[in-house]
Design brief:
Largest sheet: 5 strands, mixed
Helix content: 40-55%
Strand content: 5-15%
Number of helices: 19
CATH architecture of the largest domain: 3-Layer(aba) Sandwich
CATH class of the largest domain: Alpha Beta
Radius of gyration: 22 Å
Structural class: alpha+beta
Number of domains: 2
């Protein structure tokens, strides 16, 4: 019966949206696979934690950049408790597909990621109600959970922010040049100013390199349109016109609406053109997969780089050998030319832990105990905050376990200054894989000169309506 149920769910899941994350809900940002699927211990002690028994823990990880940290954490937990923890990280752009495959197995994941209410609907028969869990009790902001069908279907494992990462050192050096557009990086508070600065830097790359010894290639890092990077623009940048349109329409900023007009696509085009025209990358190569924007920024070949706070750890890790340091980098909003003076960073999450209700009770007990350990133990909190560089929404993350992420600190500073954080409206994207693929295809053709902007508008607006209809067919019946 369980297998039959899984088969039925897989059909539904093919049409369902798994929004990607710090990544891309279909844009999962990479891959790695370490796997042990042995069973180990779980009887509950008086605190409700699993100490020994037959339970197993199987985490299907959504964030590839955290893979090694989870593998290491799993080993620590196994050493301490004897409970075997298996971690599988989905391949780049393959979280939905991997999840569908793994959930059909006898030993399915006991912890998996869902990104929004649509995904909670799709996997409703497989999400345990977490309202009485220690995980939910420790959640500082209960809005960082997904409620569906009268239950707490999933709880955020982190919250994140994204915007335009910038190199303070290079910008400060630029400001000392004769004729610089700004006297201080703090003057960049609008799209018009950002555009003027980026264009001036791009035109003076050789002068800046000669004067200060950099090896700049352009103002912005490459705007890659390959599967490992395009989510930054079909998801995170596309969020901006969606957010402002939803706001105008007075609809739910997270769950969206069935049709959109593309009211702010001119602003989307302006930002995209800025990214492309002030980069050192050939526009015809953006979908080649040969570009590495993180490396370009890290090696001081670019001043600006649209991405999120999850980049703080890899950019500042000694292992990567990048030239930038934690003191060099900051994050500013994706100024959009709409409400720049009041705009903060894009803040939210698409990373929610769900526990498999179809697992055995022993596995459920072991899984809940593991998650509780992750958010309360020194090892777990250190891994989340310091190794993964994430901000965890739990009351246990205080003192040494508060975020040292400079980008999170920038977000908090903007909020303290009264700026409005931009909601993650891209979480509403219907059939996210298909919609984004069509937008990226049209954007690629526009950028390499083989297509026009009208095709991007069509993919964005008409594609949204079409995919919304497909995604909500069951609701209409």
């Amino acid at each position: 019966m369980k297998r039959k149920l899984v088969s039925l769910m897989l059909v539904a899941a093919m049409a369902a949206s798994m929004v990607v994350g710090c990544g891309n809900n279909s844009n999962d940002k990479g891959s790695n696979d370490k796997g042990k699927t042995e069973e180990a211990g779980g009887e509950k002690d008086e605190s409700g934690s699993t100490a020994s028994g037959d339970g197993r823990v199987y985490l299907l990880n959504f964030k590839p950049e955290t893979d090694q940290a989870w593998q290491d954490l799993a080993d620590v937990y196994t050493d301490e408790t004897g409970v075997e923890v298996n971690v599988l990280t989905a391949a780049d752009g393959q979280y939905s597909t991997t999840m569908q495959s793994e959930m059909a197995k006898d030993e399915a994941p006991t912890i998996f990621n869902i990104g929004n209410t649509t995904a909670a609907q799709t996997w409703n028969d497989y999400t345990l109600d977490l309202k009485d869990s220690e995980l939910y009790k420790h959640l500082t902001d209960k809005s960082l959970s997904i409620t569906y069908d009268g239950k707490i279907a999933a709880v955020a494992n982190c919250y994140e922010c994204y915007g335009i990462i910038y190199n303070k050192k290079i910008l400060n050096d630029y400001c000392t040049l004769d004729g610089a557009v700004i006297a201080s990086p703090d003057e960049i508070t609008s799209f018009d100013t950002l555009k003027a600065v980026a264009e001036d830097i791009n035109a003076r790359v050789d002068e800046i390199n000669d004067e200060f010894g950099y090896e700049l290639q352009g103002a912005f890092a490459s705007a890659g349109l390959d599967s490992g990077s395009s989510w930054r623009f079909s998801g995170h940048l596309a969020n901006m016109p969606l957010y402002y349109e939803f706001k105008d329409d007075g609809c739910d900023l997270i769950n969206g609406e069935a049709t959109i007009d593309g009211t702010y696509l001119d602003q989307y085009k302006a930002v995209w053109d800025l990214y492309v025209n002030t980069s050192g990358a050939d526009p015809k190569t953006l979908n080649s997969g040969a570009l590495n924007a993180e490396s370009e920024f890290g090696m001081e070949e670019a001043v600006f780089y649209q991405n999120g706070d999850w980049e703080f750890s890899p950019l500042t890790s000694d292992e990567n050998g990048y030239l930038v340091t934690a003191d060099d980098i900051g994050m500013m909003p994706i100024y959009f030319g709409v409400d720049d003076e009041n705009q903060g960073l894009c803040v939210g999450t698409e990373n929610y832990w769900a526990v498999n209700s179809q697992a055995s009770q022993e596995d459920i007990d072991a899984t809940l105990a593991f998650l509780e350990w992750v958010i309360t133990s020194d090892e777990g909190r250190d891994a989340i905050t310091n190794t993964m560089g994430l901000s965890a929404p739990y009351d246990t993350f205080t003192g040494d376990y508060e975020s040292a992420n400079a980008f999170v600190q920038d977000s908090n500073a903007l909020m303290s200054a009264g700026k409005t954080s931009v909601a993650w409206s891209f979480n509403a994207t219907p059939n996210v894989d298909d919609w984004r693929a069509d937008v990226v295809s049209a954007l690629t053709a526009y950028t390499d000169g083989s297509g026009d902007w009208d095709a991007v508008k069509t993919a964005f607006v008409d594609g949204w309506a079409n995919q919304w209809t497909l995604a909500h067919e069951d609701d209409a019946q």
